[in-house]
Amino acid sequence: MLRREISGFHYYERQSGLHLLFDEAKVAREDAINRGPRHLSLMLTRSCNLNCPFCYVEKGEREASFDLLIAICEAAKELQVLDITLGGGEPTLHSSFGEFISHAWTTYPYGISVTTNAIDITPLIDVAGMLSSVRISTDNTMRPVTAKFAGRIEKIAAVHKVGANILYSPSSSRWVRDTIRLLATLGTRDFLIIPQHDSGQYVINENDWREMDGIVRDLNEKYQIMVTSDATPRITSPLLATYCESEYLFAHIDESGNIRERSWGPSFVKARTQNEIMHGLLQLNPLRRNNNEDMD
Q: Using CA atoms, how far apart are residues 30 and 15, in angstroms rounded to an integer?
């Protein structure tokens, strides 16, 4: 895919996960202002087979209808979204998980990734070759990498590109270091460190931040390590720069069509049709919001 954005021409290849930004190219503002987010997070279902105490998602039986999923996919195509990450709850519990993945992968040009706790990997194996990546969520209390868990990760890595979302909870520095090294031996290619928070308020202390900075400094040359965008300003060690204040990087849609700037934040608008979804996503474009522009 080739996307025109405020930073320049952004090329993305979903099979390899390669991103190339041609920042010497000049993009007209009217092109960039009519783009959706680079990355769209989509909650497939609120069902989950775990009950993690730090999870902010309200659990339940609700799931996105197939019609809503298709409307979101169509809107994402029109707005040149580069990739959609499917989450939950546990996304593999959606009643049409395999059918939706197959349809989306063969119909749309953008990347499709799944974030999972990997308790049941059968739905992921069944869609081998139809995902850009599978992201395994792990933490040091509910989902540590046990021998059984490691075996499931190896099986996923045999058919999908695998990344890891690692929760950095208070005083977990040693565990995070050891887990990154272990996961790398199991076929995991990249690591996203997520500082634990409660509805946007971080629960780790200053020493934790220093320890996290040290992990990035010590391991980033050997492994591909990222931190969540909100945490990037707290990291002094070199990271691949992906943040731009005027760039539209992220948006989230839940199973009912509520559009948010963050997955844990307040709902901006509820949308059900393709046009409503496009309208809602465009309103969150920083170029539009910073200038108090409205589409109506």
A: 30
166-210 pLDDT, tens digit per residue, is: 999 999 999 999 999 999 999 999 999 999 988 778 999 999 999
Residue 292 DSSP SS3: coil
Strands 250-253 and 39-43, bridge-based pairing: parallel
Please report the domains of the chain, with CATH numbers, ordered by start residue.
2-289 (3.20.20.70)
Nearest to 277 by CA among 259, 262, 293: 259
Token pair listed for 172: 């977990």
Rg (CA), the chain: 19
Whole-model pTM: value is: 0.92
What pLDDT, on the 0 to 100 scale, is given for residue 9? 94
Rounded distance between C-alpha atoms, residue 166 and residue 136, angstroms:
8
Query: Over 219-273, what HEC string results?
Result: HCCCCEEEECHHHHHHCCCCCCCCCCCCCCCEEEECCCCEEECCCCCCCCEECCC
> Taking a C-beta distance cutoff of 8 angstroms, is the pair 43, 265 a contact?
no
**Residues in the chain with pLDDT values less than 70:** 240-243, 290-296
pLDDT value of residue 200: 77
Number of CB atoms found within 10 A of residue 114's CB:
27
Q: What tokens appear for 213 in the block?
A: 């900075």
Q: How many CB atoms lie within 10 A of CB 80?
A: 21
Cβ neighbours for 131, distance < 8 A, ≥ 6 positions apart: 101, 105, 112, 113, 114, 124, 160, 161
Residue 240: per-residue pLDDT: 58
